[in-house]
Amino acid sequence: MAELKDFGPFHNRLDELNYLEPLVGSSMVELGNKKNGEFIYKKYFESLGFRHVSIDTNGQDGALPLDLRTPLWDRLGQFSMCTNFGTSEHVSDQTGVWQNIHELTKTGGVYVGQCPYYDGKSWWWHGSFYPTEAFYESFAELNGWEIERMATDRPEPNKNLYVRMKKVHDLSFTMPDLALIKRNVMRPR
């Protein structure tokens, strides 16, 4: 399949590139409609040969205007890769969004995500729900996934948590304890 031969939208985001590689399969579902400058991720991955579907209620840049709180897998199918670079923290129904992630990813496929870190000092102005390392560990164990790598980047106040997981078994979805997703209590409402 495709390789990330040039950095395209990742010219200044090598942290994202590190977690995307190696690319898997030929299809990708993206939560959100990620852009970096003039680069639209959807267009970039389509140029690499991926069947790419982006989902964002705003419907911009080729994204399907769908709600991640509702079941989408029956209508969209499954994908070899699922990316979430800063979208799930905005979805009010965390069970719905994580079930979509699980069901939209094929067995053998990978999830690559980045979300704000939950230290109370980072991204306090952005998003409402911050999954913790313990959330990802529980999600993986309960749902037949394997964490390939997980780490934080950048110092506060822009610290993120990155994870790359592989779906090893096709298990029925089980939501981890919601207490493992920290609420952003500092964000002005």
In words, what does this structure look like?
It is a single chain. This protein has 189 residues and is α/β, with parallel strands linked by helices. It has a domain at 18-114 and 153-180: 3-Layer(aba) Sandwich (Rossmann fold). The chain is 21% helix and 29% strand. The chain has five helices and ten strands; from the N terminus they run H-E-E-E-H-E-H-E-H-E-E-H-E-E-E. It has helices at residues 14-20, 41-47, 73-76, 94-104, 133-143; strands spanning 27-31, 35-36, 39-40, 51-55, 79-85, 105-116, 129-131, 145-152, 160-167, 181-183. A six-stranded mixed sheet has the order 4-1-5-6-9-8, sandwiched between helices. Strand 2 (35-36) and strand 3 (39-40) form a beta hairpin. The chain is globular, with a radius of gyration of 15 Å.
Condensed summary:
It is built from 5 helices and 10 strands; from the N terminus they run H-E-E-E-H-E-H-E-H-E-E-H-E-E-E. With 189 residues, it is an alpha/beta fold.
Q: Topology, pairings included?
A:
Blueprint: H1 14-20, E1 27-31, E2 35-36, E3 39-40, H2 41-47, E4 51-55, H3 73-76, E5 79-85, H4 94-104, E6 105-116, E7 129-131, H5 133-143, E8 145-152, E9 160-167, E10 181-183
Parallel strand pairs: 1-4, 1-5, 5-6
Antiparallel strand pairs: 2-3, 6-9, 7-10, 8-9
